[in-house]
Amino acid sequence: MEKKCDIGVVGLAVMGANLALNMADCGFSVAVYNRTPEKTREFLLGSAPGKDIVAAGSLAEMAKLLVRPRKILLMVKAGKPVDDVIDTLLPLLLPGDCIIDGGNSHFADTQRRAARVESAGMLYVGCGVSGGEAGARNGPSLMPGGTAAAWPMVRPVLQKICAKAPDGTPCCDWVGPDGSGHFVKMVHNGIEYGDLQLIGESYQFLRDGLGFGAAECSEIFARWNKGELESYLIKITGDILEFQGDDGAYLVDRILDVAAQKGTGAWVAASSLDLGVPVTLIAEAVFARFLSSARDERTAAAAALKGPDRKVAGDRNLCIADLEGALFASKIVSYAQGFMLLRAASAAFSWNLDLGKIALLWRAGCIIRSGFLDRIHRAFAHDKNLSSLVIDGYFRNALAQSQDGWRKTMSAAAFAGIPMPALSAALSFYDGYRCDRLPANLLQAQRDYFGAHGYERVDGSRGKFIHTDWIGGGGTFALGSRNA
User: Fold this and answer.
1) Catalytic one among 192, 201, 228, 242?
2) Is 192 among the catalytic positions?
3) CA 124 – CA 98 distance, rounded (Å)
4) Lesser CB count within 10 Å: N end or C end of the chain?
């Protein structure tokens, strides 16, 4: 009798191949398939010899190779390719079999696919995977969501191959229904966008404002990584800045200042608009990448537009300390905004997300792993209805302690002409969030003046809108409850 495999992996690009190897190392027998046969042969001859991995020549053959109920992990390009594979797979599967999409799919696509696969009697999981090539091979952070009945089936595999937190806890747990797993991964990537931009702005302040070279910047980041800023991204920044090429020059100084992206940050910004959540820092991080791409325009503008010389005056050690506080405070805001978006999505889609548990999924294996994720878990464990992390005692005190240096850094950057869109967005959000009276009263009056949109009064009932005749003889008119 032919041996049956525990799980199938479709797609043998870097992530799919490394996950298959990871599964085999963890004791699972794996059937693999790639639409390009040459890719499968390269994999079998290169990395797979000696491992319990079997090649399938087609999806139909893969279905026959798997033990029932079947588990098939898709690691193909997001979008139409995922739908194409599902179209081919569904006639080959039986009720109770499970399809797992481990790609970077948009959560709305996962919602649609889950409904379709479930209606056919099968199970569907949209699983966020973070950690890149190394994470996939050695243990990624995994964020599965979808058909609840699938969790007991996929849990033994996913929790075995995932990263483990310092206390040994698997960085993988069930997130919620339909597209929730991919939404959580999307927010993870958005926070990653924010973190990277904050670090980049801090680097520019050190480089242009304070005149430090790459080696000196590396030492500063390495020192920061021993304190409250401890995180994967701070660590690798120090490593990158000290890296020298064969000619002895620091490689970072030779890299073109044009940032690429794969779209997940833009998805976060779009979702924040759809859900009405002020995820301003992540949005600015996305816009900063757009601006970096306009390099020819920036080069021309640099010659035409005058401003300060980007030199920061003052004691450099004090400036570094202030910048460290500004970066830490802004990082808190980045996470706070991300979790505010998760909270809003949970309510809008009836996902019932456990925000504290999500923080635990990111403690190892993923790109945004950092020292204060346990603090985030404790904050939501203490108050599951916490409106924002900036209100929690630990983070509130950290922001208060960093505030003076935060403001000094932003002031110094403004006077020196150093762009800091994400750091400034973080401070503006903090000040706006703690402001008990914003100028929106004037805005509502303006909207009512030119469009009769109505406004609420401070001495009236919420939801009761009135309109004033601003141009004519005066007077007000009740509009009743409306979405204005």
Assistant:
1) 192
2) yes
3) 6
4) N
Question: ∠ CA(26), CA(31), CA(34), 5° rounding?
Answer: 120
* DSSP-derived 3-state class of residue 72: strand
* Residues 372 and 402: beta-carbon distance below 8 Å: no
Q: Chain-centre distance of CA 143, in angstroms?
A: 12
pLDDT in the model for residue 1: 46
Catalytic member of 185, 235, 331, 408: 185
Kind plus residue range of the DSSP H or E element containing 67: none
For 85, residues 6+ apart whose C-beta sits below 8 A from its C-beta are 10, 59, 74, 76
pTM: 0.94
> Catalytic: 3?
no
Pick the closest to residue 141 from 175, 92, 111, 91 (CA basis): 175
Q: Which residues contact 293 (CB under 8 A, 6 or more apart)?
A: 258, 259
Paired tokens of 234:
């701070």
Six-digit token pair at 155? 């849990």
Cα separation, 289 vs 201, whole angstroms: 12
Which residues, given as ranges, of the chain have pLDDT below 50? 1
Residue 186 belongs to what H/E stretch?
A: helix 180-204
Q: Which residues of 162-186 are buried (b: 16+ CB within 10 A; e: fewer)?
A: bbebeeebbbbbbbbbbbbbbbbbb
Q: Which residue do the tokens 């790609």 mark?
A: 103
